[in-house]
């Protein structure tokens, strides 16, 4: 399919042809028409899939006939977690906009802000920014977001891992509600979904790679086993297969400590890695693991978030996570950059529901292997694809006006301790705890955290006709 059939005009197609792009990538084919229609989009796509062009090209197209921006105003803001990514995004925009009459600039910290302020004076079509510097310059009134037409949050999972949630909310507070919002993320853990839920309107969901992530390079298999023989099975697998290294995921801190002890007794060196351990001891364990001195690290999913270990040969799910995104995130720790990897899951009867959710998400049944001597007493059935957790299956469309109350109810249950200075419930996402303790941004049903204050009623009617459309059920 040529780029022209996606609705892109000649100057843009010419720039693509200069770059040697002959046809759109899969994310481009799926996202470009949707973005062109002005819809909000939430996309699971990693760097390397062509995701930058998937949002830049249609926005360039949509902005073609528009008047130049007023001074200090921005048409499209692209938020990036890191300076390097911001620079890379900016470079891509320049390439794609080569024959278009639209300007772009990058705004990152660590450099003199003077030239950035100057460049803002004439108004900007595409601004690529890291949150910190952007907030600095917003405070200095070097720019305003009141005429923003599109907001892109790139690498949203990384943004949240890096603790940018409050900054993102502050930025969104200053943008008009009728903007178009696009969110891209390599993984879709609950805090990212929550961010989308609180900041987007009826987003279309596009998923590239996540479902098949690792499929080419990660060999996935599982063993059904009784819960009380899991540690014996793991020791057996390690010894029989002569595994030299592995990252073991487990649900609880207590479980991690116990397993480390059990493996130790069988002569297998392993260390627990969770948020209950001191920072110093975690750092040391991680260093040793990375250097290959420590063969096995037993991590709770939360503590292991963002762990980037080069050439990790395998991950072992001692327990299956409740969240299928978390599973995908875990297996993505191995088989990086085309290297071969292995993802093994130990499956007891208790894990069955989680297995159904995971295999439905993957779209296929994971290969099962039988290990002699470990046949389970409690059989684990083959899972049902297209399994839907009860609460999702029941979701029904609701009118948009219900969104505030529904959303506030959700938020009440998940995130407490709202910053009182915030303007509206829309501006709120999970709290900044995301990165501070390596704990999740929120825990469902966590009753210990302080309550959200009552959300304000809907803001005055937005000029965006989208606001009259019914609410999207997928958000629930
Ligand atoms: P991204 O995922 O946006 O970081 O893009 C990854 C790489 O793919 C970049 O080097 C792009 O220049 C390149 N790329 C993006 N779209 C296409 C395409 N349709 N055909 C060939 N290369 C592309």
Summarize the structure.
This protein has 476 residues and is α/β, with parallel strands linked by helices. The structure holds adenosine monophosphate (AMP).
Structural overview:
The protein has 476 residues and is of the alpha/beta class. It has 2 domains: 3-207, P-loop containing nucleotide triphosphate hydrolases (Rossmann fold, 3-Layer(aba) Sandwich); 218-392, Rossmann fold. 34% of the residues lie in helices and 14% in strands. The protein has 17 helices and 14 strands. It has helices at residues 10-18, 26-36, 51-63, 83-96, 114-120, 131-139, 156-161, 165-173, 190-199, 230-240, 253-265, 279-290, 324-331, 352-362, 390-393, 402-414, 433-436; strands at 41-44, 74-79, 104-107, 124-129, 150-153, 180-185, 204-207, 218-224, 246-250, 270-273, 296-300, 314-317, 341-347, 367-368. The strands form 2 sheets. A 7-stranded parallel beta sheet has the order 3-4-2-5-6-1-7, sandwiched between helices. Helix 5 (114-120) links the parallel strand 3 and strand 4 (124-129). Helix 2 packs parallel to helix 3 (51-63) and helix 6 (131-139) packs across helix 8. The model is unreliable at 210-215 and 392-476 (pLDDT under 50). The structure holds adenosine monophosphate (AMP). Adenosine monophosphate binds next to helix 3.
């Amino acid at each position: 399919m040529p780029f022209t059939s996606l609705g892109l005009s000649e100057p843009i197609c010419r720039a693509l042809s200069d770059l040697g792009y002959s046809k759109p990538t899969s994310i481009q084919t799926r996202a470009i028409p949707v973005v062109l229609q002005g819809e909000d989009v939430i996309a699971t796509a990693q760097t390397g899939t062509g995701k930058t062009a998937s949002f830049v090209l249609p926005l360039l197209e949509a902005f073609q006939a528009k008047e130049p921006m007023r001074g200090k105003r921005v048409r499209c803001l692209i938020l990036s977690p890191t300076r390097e990514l911001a620079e890379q995004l900016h470079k891509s925009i320049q390439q794609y906009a080569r024959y278009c009459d639209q300007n772009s600039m990058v705004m990152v910290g660590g450099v003199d802000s003077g030239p950035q302020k100057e460049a803002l004076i004439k108004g900007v079509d595409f601004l690529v920014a890291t949150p910190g510097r952007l907030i600095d310059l917003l405070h200095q009134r070097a720019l305003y977001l009141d005429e923003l037409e599109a907001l892109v949050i790139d690498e949203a999972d990384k943004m949240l891992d890096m603790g940018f949630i409050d900054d993102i909310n502050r930025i969104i507070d200053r943008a008009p509600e009728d903007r178009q919002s696009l969110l891209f993320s390599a993984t879709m853990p609950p805090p990212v979904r929550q961010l989308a839920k609180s900041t987007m309107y009826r987003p279309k969901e596009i998923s590239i790679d996540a479902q098949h992530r690792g499929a080419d390079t990660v060999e996935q298999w599982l063993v059904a086993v009784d819960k009380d023989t899991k540690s014996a099975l793991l020791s057996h697998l390690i010894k029989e297969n002569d595994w030299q290294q592995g990252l073991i995921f487990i649900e609880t801190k207590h479980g991690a400590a116990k397993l480390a002890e059990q493996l130790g007794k069988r002569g297998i060196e392993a260390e627990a890695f969770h948020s209950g351990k001191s920072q110093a001891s975690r750092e040391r364990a991680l260093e040793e693991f990375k250097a290959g001195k420590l063969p096995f690290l037993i991590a709770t999913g939360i503590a292991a978030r963002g762990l980037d270990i080069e050439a990790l040969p395998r991950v072992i799910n001692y327990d299956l996570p409740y969240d299928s995104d978390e599973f995908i995130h875990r297996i993505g720790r191995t088989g990086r950059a085309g290297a071969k990897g292995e993802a093994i899951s130990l499956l007891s009867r208790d894990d069955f529901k989680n297995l159904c959710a995971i295999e439905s998400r993957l779209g296929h049944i994971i290969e099962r292997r039988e290990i002699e001597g470990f046949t389970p007493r409690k059989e684990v059935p083959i899972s049902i694809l297209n399994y839907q957790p009860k609460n999702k299956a029941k979701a029904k469309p609701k009118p948009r006006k219900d969104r505030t109350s529904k959303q506030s109810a959700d938020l009440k249950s998940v995130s407490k301790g709202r910053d009182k200075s915030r303007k509206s419930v829309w501006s709120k996402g999970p709290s900044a705890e995301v990165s501070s303790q390596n704990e999740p941004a929120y825990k469902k049903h966590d009753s210990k955290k302080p309550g959200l204050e009552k959300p304000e009623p809907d803001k005055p009617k937005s000029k965006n006709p989208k606001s009259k459309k019914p609410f999207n059920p997928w958000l629930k």
